[in-house]
Design a protein that fits this description.
Helices cover 63% and strands 11% of the residues. By secondary structure, it is α+β, with helices and mostly antiparallel strands. Strands 4-7-6-5-8 form a 5-stranded mixed sheet, covered by helices on one side. The chain starts with a helix and ends with a helix.
Length: 383
Amino acid sequence: RARLAVTALADRFGQGGPAPGAAFFRADFGDYRLKWERHTEFVRYQVIQNGDGHSAFDQPALAALPADWVAGLPGRVIAATHVGLVRGFEGTVDHDALAARMFGGHVPVGGALGGGAAMGFSDFRIHPDGFARLLIQDRAMTPRQAGRMVQRLLEIDTYRLLALLALPLARDLAPVIALQEQELARITAALAEAGEADEPVLLDRLTRLAAEVESRRSERSYRFAAAGAYSTLVHRRLGELRESRIQGLQTFQEFVERRLAPAMDTCRSAASRQEALSRRAGRATQLLATRVELTSERQSQAVLASMNRRAKLQLRLQETVEGLSVAAVTYYVVGLIYYVAKGVKAGGIEISPDLVAGLAIPVVGVLVALGLRRIRRLVARQS
């Protein structure tokens, strides 16, 4: 959307806008020059206009742009800075006069920049026109040096504000982390005294807590990491200023570090507490899960032992049934032999059916027992 807005502005002046996917665009529209940059989280519009010889902050260069186009720009304003780049002068700086004339009476912050090639001043306040003010007195800079110096100072303010976006999240997170730490302490204390019946309930509480911690951590980890990256860029740009002190004024580095360092410490503290809480919750979850697993294994062992006892009982019962089966089969086979012997006797052959049946009993019993044993071995071998 930002690229399309710049393209629409360029079309008004008969110029081509940035190409699709472009991250940088610069054009000269006559009364002013526009530079557009697209970064990871923000876009920057820089309007450059020659001064009219009056005060550097009479009217921001943004006023040269079509008002309807400015009103339709997408996104929200993170930083708006009115930069005055003026020819400097040799000699000491009257701080009170500078504050009254340029910064609405507010005490400025500043220093000699680029080894004394320029002087920079700002009060880091938003003035009634909606802009912060940055005054640069050019004493001995080339145009390229002046451009780089302006860019560094703008980036310091922009990256400082982007880094501070994480501070409200860190402040909101602090009481939440405290409550989560207390809940984790209660769970771990209960874990030391918990029985097997309490373990599933504690595991449910702990997994819910771990899920909540990870959810908040994933929501804020990018913002905290981005804050650290932006803070690093701020310090790098401060070092590139090669700033030296002006007697009686606070330097840019002192001002920024005094306000940015505590905020970044707060963000780092919140991030480290969150990370430590996540690790502790993970360890407690692993410990409790191990206890639940051991309990489950003990229960499984008890079930297996019970099944083993039942199997032994079944084996004994089977052996008993097999003995009864041998007796039953022997009884029926011997009965058949008895009736066969009676038939033979009725046919005229003198034999005693009772004697034949009595003699058949041990033979049939042994054969039946051997047959059942062979069958059992075949079944066992196939299984």
